[in-house]
Design goal:
The protein contains 1 helix and 6 strands. The protein is of the alpha+beta class. The longest helix is centred in the C-terminal third of the chain and has 18 residues.
Length: about 90
């Protein structure tokens, strides 16, 4: 179906609150926090596709930083590349 946002990045959300709709079916937040990521409105999506990210820490400042997980993954990739080219 087609993804339609009901909220925006940075909006506070509670568990069970409607975040978006697909073909008039609501997509509900699984946890409370701040909306940190959403798929592009109007995008065609399939059942089970991750369409957003909610940061349960509720800190609006985290909206403008990368996650600890992304930082760790990026560091691991950089380390692997450096090992290949410094070998």
């Amino acid at each position: 179906g087609i993804f339609e946002c009901r909220l925006s990045l940075g909006d506070a959300v509670q568990a069970g609150q409607e975040v978006a709709r697909v073909n008039d079916e609501p997509i509900l937040a699984q946890t409370g926090g701040i909306i940190r990521g959403l798929i592009r409105p109007g995008a065609r999506v399939t059942r089970g596709l991750k369409v957003g990210d909610i940061d349960p820490r509720g800190e609006l400042s985290h909206l403008h930083t990368i996650s600890d997980k992304a930082r760790t993954l990026g560091g691991a990739v950089l380390e692997a590349i450096m090992r290949v080219f410094n070998a």
